[in-house]
Amino acid sequence: MTATRTAEPAPTFDGVVLAGGQSSRMGTDKATLPWRGRPLLQHMRGLLEQAGAQRVLTCGPDPEAQGLPDRQPGLGPVGGLLTLAQTQADGIYLVLPVDMPQLTNGLLRRLVGALAEAEETPCATFAGHVLPLCLRLDETTRAAIAAVAGQAPRMRSLRALHARLQGAELAVDDDERRCLVNCNTPEQWQEVQP
């Protein structure tokens, strides 16, 4: 009799799109920019669904789904994570910015898999990037998010949160790095057009 090896079950996680920013450098709401025939926010939500997210939340206003408006406006991406920490149950959350349309399912699954395999690791990112972020939401990470949110504006950043949590950083090659480009300005947006 031969034994068959079963595949490891895919980790359970929820997806989050950070879409509550002012888009001041872009000059228009980034969430509504057209990407391959639909608004960018819908594209990013779709990426999370395709990667296996059980549910997808939006930190910020979302006309098609219940968004999570910042409970403390003006804190930037940390404010979105603070709202997430204050309103959602423990678990693994894959957090994407609304302005990174070239992300791939492979990269997203790799990030979730890295966190799921390392049970003591609070978060995982790609080297040199603060987002996307795979976060293990629990008492420890909630406290770290609250502490960073309470800092002076210059110290209130995702980079400061990463430093506090000391999570895993996954190496990326040049092709993967091109998929991790943020679009903050009209010029950057034009550069990523298909």
TrEMBL record:
Residues 15-161 form the MobA-like NTP transferase domain. GO terms for molecular function: GTP binding; metal ion binding; nucleotidyltransferase activity. Coiled coil: none annotated. Keywords: Cytoplasm, GTP-binding, Magnesium, Metal-binding, Molybdenum cofactor biosynthesis, Nucleotide-binding, Nucleotidyltransferase, Transferase. InterPro entries: MobA-like_NTP_Trfase, Molybde_CF_guanTrfase, Nucleotide-diphossugar_trans. Residues 1-31 are annotated as: Disordered. It comes from the Bacteria. One of its GO terms (biological process) is bis(molybdopterin guanine dinucleotide)molybdenum biosynthetic process. This is Molybdenum cofactor guanylyltransferase. It comes from Rhodanobacter thiooxydans.
